[in-house]
Design brief:
Blueprint: H1 9-38, H2 40-66, H3 73-83, H4 86-89, E1 92-98, E2 101-106, H5 110-117, H6 126-140, E3 145-151, E4 161-166
Antiparallel strand pairs: 1-2, 2-4, 3-4
Helix pairs in contact: 1-2, 2-6
């Protein structure tokens, strides 16, 4: 990556933002193509299989890149959640209501907002999300349990979805 060595901090941040948005746009284009060709049910099943593979790979890459030790509990998970690609494109909040619980709230969701903007049917993301978040969390620490607190379209007006992690 020698071609980036002379970039300013601002240029690198702009590049991260552009790449994160491009990654999410590709994910969306892939899903829409599958939905159009195969129907929503099959597209969701393929999406679940994809997240089942991607989420632990993303977690392991983050841990390796940022020196997060395995089996680090909720502290390690919190650090890793802030380093996910999603944290670069969606506004999120993390709360620690107790030492053995962590709650992630998605305050902005580009996926759901894009579907709304395009007048597409609501995407009930809980089935995919539980795979995505539980596989990510268990790759950080297998003791972590994941539970969906609320998911679009049944989510709170304050956020698109919320997830509880506990040990």
């Amino acid at each position: 990556m020698d071609h980036l060595k002379d970039f300013t901090r601002e240029q690198l941040l702009t590049l991260i933002d552009a790449h994160a948005k491009s990654w999410l746009a590709h994910d969306g284009c892939w899903f829409l193509a599958a939905e159009e060709k195969l129907g929503m049910e099959t597209a969701v099943e393929l999406d679940k299989l994809s997240w089942e593979r991607f989420s632990p790979a993303e977690a392991r890459r983050i841990m390796k890149s940022f020196g997060i030790q395995p089996n680090g509990g909720l502290d390690a998970l919190e650090k890793a959640l802030w380093l996910r690609i999603y944290a670069c494109v969606n506004k999120q909040r993390i709360e620690r209501p107790s030492p053995d619980r962590l709650v992630l709230c998605m305050l902005e969701c580009r996926v759901q907002q894009a579907r709304r903007d395009k007048k597409l049917a609501d995407f009930h993301c809980g089935g995919v999300g539980i795979i995505e978040y539980s596989r990510f969390a268990s790759a950080i620490d297998p003791r972590i349990r994941t539970r969906c607190l609320s998911c679009f379209p049944e989510a709170s007006q304050d956020y698109w979805c919320s997830w509880e992690f506990s040990v």
